[in-house]
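Here is one chain, start to finish.
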Amino acid sequence: MSVQTKAAPRKAAQVFIFVTIVLDVLAMGMVIPVMPQLIMQTGKLDIAHAAQVFGAFGMVWAVMQLIASPVQGALSDRYGRRPIILTSNFCMGLNYVLMALAPNLGWLFVGRMISGVAAGSIPAAMAYLADVSEPHKRAGSFGLMGAAMSLGFAVGPALGGLLGGLDPRAPFWAAAALSLANTLYGVFVLPESLARDRRAPLEIRHLNPIGALGGLIRSYPALVGMLAVSFLLSLAQQGPNNVFVLYADHRYGWGPTDIGLMMTGFGVSGMIVQGGLVPLAMKWLGERRAMLTGFMLQTLGMVLFALAQTGAQFWMCLPVVSLGAIGGPAWSAFVSRQVSSNEQGRLAGASSSLNSITGIIGPGLFTMTFALAIGGQAPWLPVGAPFFAAAALTALAALGASAVTRKPLAPATAQA
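Its structure:
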């Protein structure tokens, strides 16, 4: 009876977090298709200048998330996950209202800065899932989170594109409504996951990216190699994320409809794999083999993307890349077990900071590689060079992951 009683709240909490992430990512995804159009309309810019502004907006978002993520992670370890998730969602809702009303590019720029600061619900949600999941079941929980994000990104851009056809500001109003509704949902049904006796003291050195990373590494030296692997994986993802639209247009002549369908395909397949296949992969292969298998499939998928001569061939590569998604949740579960229960927020914040760093350097790195490949400055580079680069980074990450997981580590205990 006690086991069932304990399991029920955990299951309910996972459902709450699933809904929270779906709504959060759905809101973010809705504004993606119309942001360039809103920049052009608000700033009265042509496409070339709007592209430059759009790039600057993406960079400032990553910089603000880099600064804010360790703060939110440390605060969630000290005060609990619930207030961080709710505050982030509420601020994001107000920010969408600000951007919907923005009279000029300056206010849009401020909105993107706030978005970067407020995008703290995802790291806090990862810490939440680590709190409510048994260590050996965390891969499945992180897979559930990945499925929620995939669902949001599958539906959000399509819905945003439809609303954007009415008015470029309409998706921002809809996103604001979703974020504020998400906040109300959490106020009434989201329980706190971190008991008071498991909370960590708040230290100033935990509130900046360097201090957060340095403090974790000093407490858990084994994290050095793991965070390096996480960095490589995150940087590899920047490749397809930043060049896909340009690449598909240049190589296959795809328009917005074709690209939107492909994004939906990525989202739906990611939802199926991470929501349904991850638990099975953990059962059949075990955590380490599932992780390495996923990384190898991701590497192969990136190579196949680079070699695809037609749009139909590109579509045929999608199942390989999608199946590779079993590796991410297994890796996250492994890393989460290396720190104590009262420092999951710091770990999530540090990981998010690494993602933000790759979000700062990745777009320029991969778009420049693509430009060199098609512009004639580097004729030896194939047109699929960004995907080959992503494959190489993923392969390096797989080698690193194999090395750091070769010998099992004892689970961490709570720090005093």
